């Protein structure tokens, strides 16, 4: 989809008008009647204006904060797409503040997204968006341009997640991410299997043992001038390119058939790094992406195996479908060497997350003495619409990970599955003396990352959840 442009002349294509609850109606003859219809139907209204292109009127909904503007614009985008329009002009509400204008652009572009790469004869779903405001201030233009970038990298992330598994095995996915990252100005380093072995990443290598496709470990870094010596923010993303469950095989329906999305955490981290570079955020950020698929090959790791992790911790494998935490653990251990300011990992980690919080809210987990970090993530979610809710991490949850033969088991039983997965990860964020090595939070976005049905500006399939959340957190750091 092409970028957003400002327009200082006539309307181009379909005109989009957002009808606010209060304030003056826009200076469009049909606005009053359209508002009356929209109030009754709660749906967008098309007015076939005489002598000019159609006008789409959309009413604000009841969502909180800026989400009501995003959802309204997404609703309009869906209607514009149904008209097969190639261009649309967004009329901003009178004296709209920059954050409202940005939300409208973000919502429209996210709502217009379609994944059509494998649809025979389908044209690319591109609607060129114009903003009608010839007198826009610098702050308004800057806000809209930033919103355009956020939407663009979120849609790119959606493409990565929606891509079929056979087209994104680790080597191919690493190349695809590296190409976009380097184009944005990021430093990229890709470790092959030999380097991963040399680094002692036994969790990643164990998960990969049943695969015909070797693993990769990708490091992305954004360090603008003046930040090179700063302690970095480190983002870690689970990047399991396809998950059968390994020898602990998943059922197909409503499980394995969606596992191309098991790299959505890594995709969100990659999208956030590319976005940070394109936005020019003055903060040093490192992204770590451990990549493998998980298949039941002849040499696949098995329940009862013991893996020696990057940190030296031994882990008894009791379920090969709890694989994501193994490769994340290696990355979190490696993060210690970077001297991070703080670390956040994003992962499609547990089905229990969806049982607890549903498909619209991710779980965020932090240590009990770092509740402020979890609260910061929650507030970023409220601002962006990538909603997160904290779950507790009391010390007793780690007791469920005890093993008879190794330092840890990779599963903690049925109870509190999302939390015990977080407790497993937390173990690898500590130094050799058992003390926390850095501030850390874990975001389990298993259900929000890939949807069974669309809502708001989020399509069925890959939602891009987490990209704008992470960019908001990075922007907050950049602002000091």
From TrEMBL:
Gene Ontology cellular component list: cytoplasm
Cofactors that this protein relies on: Mn(2+)
MF (Gene Ontology): manganese ion binding; metalloaminopeptidase activity
Residue sites binding Mn(2+) 2 per the record: 238, 243, 262, 323
Location(s), subcellular: Cytoplasm
Enzyme's top EC category: hydrolase
InterPro entries listed in its UniProt record: Leucine_aapep/pepB, Macro_dom-like, Peptidase_M17_C, Peptidase_M17_leu_NH2_pept, Peptidase_M17_N
Domain of life: Bacteria
EC number: 3.4.11.1, 3.4.11.10
PANTHER family: CYTOSOL AMINOPEPTIDASE (PTHR11963:SF23), LEUCINE AMINOPEPTIDASE-RELATED (PTHR11963)
Name under which the protein is recorded: Probable cytosol aminopeptidase
Protein's organism: Rubrivirga marina
Gene behind the chain: pepA
């Amino acid at each position: 989809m092409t970028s957003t442009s400002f327009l200082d002349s006539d309307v181009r294509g379909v005109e989009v008008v957002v009808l606010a609850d209060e304030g003056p109606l826009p200076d469009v003859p049909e606005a009053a009647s359209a508002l009356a219809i929209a109030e009754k139907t709660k749906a967008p209204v098309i007015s076939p204006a005489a002598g000019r292109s159609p006008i789409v009127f959309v009413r604000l909904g009841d969502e909180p904060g800026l989400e009501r503007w995003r959802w309204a614009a997404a609703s309009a985008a869906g209607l514009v797409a149904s008209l097969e329009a190639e261009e649309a002009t967004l009329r901003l509400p009178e004296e709209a503040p920059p954050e409202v204008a940005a939300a409208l652009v973000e919502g429209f572009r996210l709502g217009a997204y379609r994944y059509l790469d494998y649809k025979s004869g389908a044209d690319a779903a591109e609607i060129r968006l114009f903003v009608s405001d010839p007198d826009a201030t610098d702050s308004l233009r800057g806000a809209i341009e930033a919103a355009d970038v956020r939407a663009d990298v979120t849609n790119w992330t959606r493409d990565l997640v929606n891509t079929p598994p056979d087209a994104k095995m680790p080597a191919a996915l690493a190349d695809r991410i590296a190409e976009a990252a380097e184009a944005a100005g990021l430093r990229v380093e890709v470790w092959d299997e030999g380097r991963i072995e040399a680094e002692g990443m036994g969790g990643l290598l164990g998960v990969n043992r049943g695969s015909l496709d070797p693993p990769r470990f990708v490091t992305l870094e954004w360090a603008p001038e003046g930040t090179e010596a700063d302690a970095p923010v480190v983002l870690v993303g689970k990047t399991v390119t396809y998950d059968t469950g390994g020898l602990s095989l998943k059922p197909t329906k409503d499980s394995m058939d969606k596992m191309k999305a098991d790299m959505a955490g890594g995709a969100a981290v990659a999208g956030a790094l590319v976005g940070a570079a394109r936005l020019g955020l003055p903060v040093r950020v490192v992204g770590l992406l451990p990549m493998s698929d998980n298949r039941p090959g002849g040499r696949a790791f098995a329940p009862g195996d013991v893996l020696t992790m990057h940190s030296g911790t031994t882990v008894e494998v009791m379920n090969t479908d709890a694989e994501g935490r193994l490769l994340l653990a290696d990355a979190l251990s490696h993060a210690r060497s970077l001297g991070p300011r703080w670390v956040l990992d994003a992962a499609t980690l547990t089905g229990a997350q969806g049982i607890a919080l549903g498909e619209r809210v991710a779980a965020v987990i932090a240590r009990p003495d770092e509740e402020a970090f979890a609260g910061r993530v929650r507030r970023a979610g409220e601002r962006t619409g990538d909603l997160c809710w904290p779950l507790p991490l009391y010390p007793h949850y780690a007791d469920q990970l005890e093993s008879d033969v190794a330092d840890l088991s990779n599963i903690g039983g049925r109870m509190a599955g999302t939390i015990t997965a977080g407790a497993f990860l937390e173990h690898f964020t500590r130094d050799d003396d058992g003390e926390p090595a850095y501030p850390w939070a874990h975001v389990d976005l298993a259900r929000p990352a890939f949807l069974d049905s669309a809502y708001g500006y989020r399509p069925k399939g890959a939602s891009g959840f987490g990209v704008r959340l992470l960019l908001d957190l990075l922007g907050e750091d950049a602002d000091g």
